[in-house]
Amino acid sequence: MDKTIEELHNLLKSGEVTSRELIEESLKKSHEIQEKYNAFVTILDDAKETNVTDHFLSGIPFGIKDNYSTKDILSTGSSNTLKDYVPFFTATAVQKLLDVGAVPVNKTVLDEFGMGGTGTTGHTGIVKNPWDTTRMTAGSSAGSACAVASGVYPYALGSDTGDSIRKPAAYCGIVGYKPTYGMISRYGLFAFASSLDHCGVLTRSVADAAIVTDTTKGIDEHDMTSWDSSDIHLYDSLNGDVKDKKLCYIKELCDIEVYENPTEELKKHLENFMNSLEVCKSLGMNVEEVSVDKQLLDALPSVYVAISCAEATSNMSNLTGIIFGPRGEGKNVTEMMMDHRTKGFSPLIKRRFIIGSYILQKENQERYFKNAQRVRRMLVDTWKNLFKSYDAVILPVGSGPAKHLDESKDILTKDTAALEEHLQVGNFGGFPSITIPNGFINDLPVALNITGNCYDDENVLNIAYAIESKMNYKNQIAKEVHHEQI
Amino acid sequence: MSKFTSELVDDLAAKLLIGLSPEENQMVLDEFAIIDENLSKVDSFQNIKTIEPMTHCLDDFTFTLREDEAEPSIPIEDALRNCDKTEGREVEVPKVVGGEN
To answer: CA A272, CA A241: separation in Å to the nearest integer?
Structure first.
């Protein structure tokens, strides 16, 4: 299970290993990881082997974030409001994997309904970082990142509304990819903020991300925002030829001089990022610094919260505990719903619903919701202008390695840096965006991100593939370097 | 525009059918203060009001509607399987019309 998909496929085809043996190894590892890091809501101990075909994914185990609907399998969204919910249908992305003989072995923990970035708000408890159990995995695809990094399987499905695949991938030292909006059907994914939600995957190599997405993508009559991507062949396009490609990075995010009191971790992180730019140049790419209006970048985190909270408030009004979810107590329907929602939602979710509700009130819409949507367009147009001159934007992910568990990232503070949140632009514009590891700080992984224009997924992945090939972090498995004192 | 006060937070929470502790109420106020401050600055962006709000990722998106044909719906048993209280083919709830409320 510490191998790439291609390697596992070749072993299966040659008969050196069987699907049953891979599943058993994956389940054994799942239980070990659950004990240490609490990555799963459900482990599917009755997972059955499948026939090995010519498809890369046949017979190979994988994980599913628990906000994907899976028929006859508990699907909680890591929320108490759905702690006993068993769907009667399967999400399209999952079904496409099942159709080629891939084998799900567990459902992974997320921040409740994907509305967090720490991996600490799931109803089954905190997911710990497999490199350092005193640090967060980030989220919301916390369990998927933890499990892939720990070598439970080569890939797990994730979802990404702000940076929920790409940030945990960075903190766990693996690859996280969300393709262009609508390339993978969202049918069966629990909706958080529909105009920002993306399906995607966490892997340990760019090629594996390409293989999985080639399988999960495609137009779906159940998702009117999906589109025909049959002329996009991600895996076949990986050739590593990036000579004369043009990348840019943003001065206002990457220049250490713009930060008043930078931490040692931030200094090292940005220095390491600059070294990665040299790697890009050595591959024949042109890399240039560009400037983006700082005022616009500073507005980014609040714009994201405003839009996502407003959409979430609306999307999750169906969580009443009447038709599904545990019944609340009360002498009438209103009291029952109040009890269900009060006990079921975590404080973070409640807070965001209230802010979303306020923003959506008619008298407040212009000042908050519409203005946020206007800044969304300004940011997207800024990035699209960059894509007229550059193949992709390359930026560091976050301000350093994984944060300590006692630092709460989900409370929006005045000093929230645009550096922490810039990946949200990828969701605003639906841009293809991939995070790959690019080094270590204090023995903990850090990452860079490549984001390109809509529908240019082949180019984005090929650039990431080329950079990955020049560094030593492909297919790395987490090695616990620190752990909490007992 | 109504001011974002503790009372308003409780009022919104009630409308959302969510109960809040005093600590949770304060956290809403604290978080919103930052959003309010940041989005206040947005108001001063040049020509902000002339920009069309962006509601969707893909500007070039065209919707293809399905044919308007009736398809089989899900079995009632499936629709009710996650409901804690049912009676036959229906969801059971306390009396709504003519009840206490």
So the answer is: 24
For A4, the token pair is 């790439």
The answer to whether B36 and B4 are in contact (CB under 8 A) is: yes
Q: pTM here?
A: 0.96
CATH number of A1-486: 3.90.1300.10
Crossing angle of helices A457-469 and A264-282, in 10° steps, is 100
Is B27's Cβ below 8 Å from some Cβ in A? Answer: yes
Contact B51 A85 (CB under 8 A): no
Residues of chain B in contact with residue A370, where contact means CB-CB under 8 angstroms, are 53
Instruction: Report the distance separating Cα A325 and Cα B84, nearest Å.
Output: 8
Is the distance from CB of A311 to CB of A271 less than 8 angstroms? no
Cα end-to-end distance, chain B, whole Å:
32
Rounded CA-CA distance A269/A206 in Å is 22
Label the pairing between strands A433-441 and A175-178.
antiparallel
Give this complex's ipTM: 0.91
Would you list the domain boundaries of chain B? Answer: 6-91
Interfacial B residues in 43-62 facing A (CB < 8 Å): 43, 45, 48-49, 51-58, 61
Per-residue pLDDT of chain A (486 residues; tens, 9 = 90+): 899 999 999 999 999 999 999 999 999 999 999 999 999 999 999 999 999 999 999 999 999 999 999 999 999 999 999 999 999 999 999 999 999 999 999 999 999 999 999 999 999 999 999 999 999 999 999 999 999 999 999 999 999 999 999 999 999 999 999 999 999 999 999 999 999 999 999 999 999 999 999 999 999 999 999 999 999 999 999 999 999 999 999 999 999 998 888 889 999 999 999 999 999 999 999 999 999 999 999 999 999 999 999 999 999 999 999 999 999 999 999 999 999 999 999 999 999 999 999 999 999 999 999 999 999 999 999 999 999 999 999 999 999 999 999 876 555 444 447 999 999 999 999 999 999 999 999 999 999 999 999 999 999 999 999 999 999 999 999 998 876 654
Q: Which of residues 406-445 of A touch B (CB under 8 A)?
A: 411-414, 416, 427-430
Residues in chain A: 486
Considering only CB atoms, which chain B residues are within 8 Å of A330?
Answer: 94
